[in-house]
Design a protein that fits this description.
The structure is a homodimer. Chain A is α/β, with parallel strands linked by helices. Chain A is built from 15 helices and 17 strands.
């Protein structure tokens, strides 16, 4: 429980930029590349800590913005920190709250000092600054703390993106100053939108500050999947080799496979958990809408190649029934299945990198997988688009 | 998996009418007295079969009315019956649908033939008769099938209750005729409202038909807790000694303790599961509303004498946070805790009967427990009252 943060590269794939690594934290080690389930409000929705341990996850993501609003970081600190509060003994990475204050909160005022905003829960006026973000994440007791950044939606015009790069660097320095290490790690975030020159500038400025790891921010914020991937392709190779690279908020299975090939080590996305609750299940070959009539009396498991506890015991017909009846158990079983699919994909990817056959692995995945952008319940593209100004997404609370 | 139904009395308490027994079914045996969690729509809400097994439950209750409406008993039969459909390998008792068609459905017409009603799901016109109830329960593959009965709410006038007794006997005979045994058991249900003479008449008529067990119906249908207990106190001793006695739908912990002392062997109630979802948690001394502000940063478990997986890992503060945040995990953890409390109470009661010290056990319980009728989220008495005419309870779907 007391090892300081470290990152070790164990193997590099000869045919791609993929690498096998190991992150050590005060709460255990993480074999990378790794996917982090999103635990917004002190729980990965519908999962217990035992569930996540059994699925093999070694680190989860917590949301600074949500936890600061409810129950408040002081409550979490008094109860021994987020690990103890939620009964999770493995590692926790917390985001900085930057993305949420810009996407969720109302009436924000963005300045070099920070962001003033109104809580999406009760409308109270609050502010977030680099110093405040560090204070909250310290109270939560995160193993990996994220620097506070300015994350504009895409598309945004060049002046907005350039300002975000400048402000992100300013805030990264203030985050670094305010951060108290104590064995934990602080990661810097790179911005720069879809502009090559600004991405290069942001990488240079952030890397110069000296962080324990680096994140690619400003993706999956409204742009197409193709553009997201292009941004990562130009940014990832610029980041220091000897530190973990975390790709923020992007994560269809296809995204993960491609981005691991570009040398990304850490991933998070609400897709497997949120899609589960919407009845969209991942299989080894694509997606399945469990509510469809064709599954009415289908006795097969969701995926007959899947070894998860759901596929071992329950039929598509039963899962369809639970979903249509609005049963809580539907949420739980669908989430278990989707997270198992993600955990399994990452395990197989790590093995392929160790074997020096990642290109072959990725080609096999592409040939099986009918990749498409995910859709929400109404068949609209998901994630929903930010407007150019980064306004709150109507009626939706992002995890 | 193929033992025919049997009931064995293992021990009789010397100071009360409590008895220890064992029911054997094609899906395993049940140590009695036993509490059955309610699995309305093919799932005990928020629980997996593994959860229920780990809690030690040996039989659950399924709802004929709900499953016939959705997904339909033909679907369940095609998928191998309810056990296989929901992945539960232990015993299942199904109710007859009588209570639900009278309490949930709209526009019902009650005659000696049966009940015509409209589905609460889609308004379609359906009918339920003794023969139809047997057909559905056979398709579900229940281990214990309940005869179709006419269950009036309380208060009802004497002619209504007398008609229900007559019709319940008529329907019990038709249920017996239509029932195909195949190792399973058919239980008859006694009605008679709060009228001693009608209860005696109903017991005599139902017992004469020859059922494998008997149930006390027509309680927990709008009357006070005191009246419910009086009805059971006058009815239970009249029921044949050599068959299981099932008290339908009544089940505060205090009810269970008193009614076991009167010789009841089987119980079901939505109280532990529904209260869990409403944030009401049972402890060894009473109830606790988890949303209360006093628990904001309370690091203690719900009950420090409780060995359940929730009390071993989570604080009141965390459970309060999950509940207020509307997290699915709140439903699951609260339900796990409440069902553990019930399972534990029954285990301790069975030990006390074996030791011949049930009166002492019950006295100890009464001295600790601040018994009160449960309340719903709005603080109103629960279960909600039927109106005298047995109309649908506005806006609420009874499990």
């Amino acid at each position: 429980m007391s090892a300081p943060f470290s990152f070790l590269t164990l193997a590099c794939d000869p045919g791609t930029a993929a690498r096998r690594g190991r992150i050590t934290t005060p709460h255990g080690s993480i074999e990378t590349p790794a996917f982090m389930p999103v635990g917004t409000a002190g729980t990965v929705k519908a999962m217990t800590p035992e569930d996540l341990e059994a699925l093999g996850f070694e680190m989860i993501l917590g949301n600074t913005y949500h936890l600061a609003l409810r129950p408040g970081e002081d409550v979490v600190r008094r109860l021994g920190g987020l690990h103890r509060f939620m009964g999770w003994e493995r590692a926790i990475l917390t985001d900085s709250g930057g993305f949420q204050v810009l996407s969720l909160a109302d009436l924000r005022t963005l300045s070099d000092d920070g962001v003033e905003f109104r809580s999406h829960l009760d409308g109270s006026l609050l502010s977030m600054t680099p110093e405040r973000s560090m204070q909250i994440q310290e109270a939560l007791g995160s193993d990996i703390v994220m620097a506070f950044d300015d994350c504009p939606a895409l598309p945004s015009d060049r002046p907005r993106i350039e300002a975000a790069v400048r402000r992100t660097t300013l805030w990264a320095r203030r985050s670094r100053e305010a951060f108290r290490k104590e064995g934990r790690a602080l990661f810097g975030i790179v911005q720069g939108g879809d502009d090559r020159e600004l991405r290069e500038r942001s990488v240079a400025e952030i890397a110069a500050i000296g962080f324990e790891g680096h994140a690619i921010g400003g993706v999956s914020v409204g742009e197409s999947a193709g553009l997201s991937r292009s941004i990562v392709a130009l940014t990832a190779p610029l980041l220091p080799q000897d530190r973990p690279r975390y790709l923020m908020g992007m994560g269809t299975p296809g995204d993960l496979v491609e981005m691991m090939g570009l040398g990304c080590d850490l991933f998070d996305c609400v897709l497997p958990t949120r899609n589960a609750r919407n009845g969209t299940l991942f299989t080894s070959t694509g997606r399945l809408q469990i509510k469809r009539r064709e599954f009415l009396d289908d006795p097969r498991p969701v995926d007959d190649t899947c070894a998860c506890p759901v596929c071992r015991r329950f039929s598509r017909a039963y899962l369809r029934h639970l979903y249509l009846a609005g049963e809580i158990l539907a949420m739980r079983l669908n989430t278990l299945h989707n997270l198992h699919q993600y955990a399994d994909l990452m395990r197989r990817a790590r093995s392929a990198i160790e074997a020096g056959r990642y290109a072959e692995f990725a080609a096999g995945f592409r040939s099986r997988w009918a990749d498409q952008r995910p859709v929400d319940e109404a068949g609209r593209p998901w994630p929903r688009r930010h407007t150019a100004g980064g306004r709150k997404i109507a009626g939706e609370v992002i995890e």
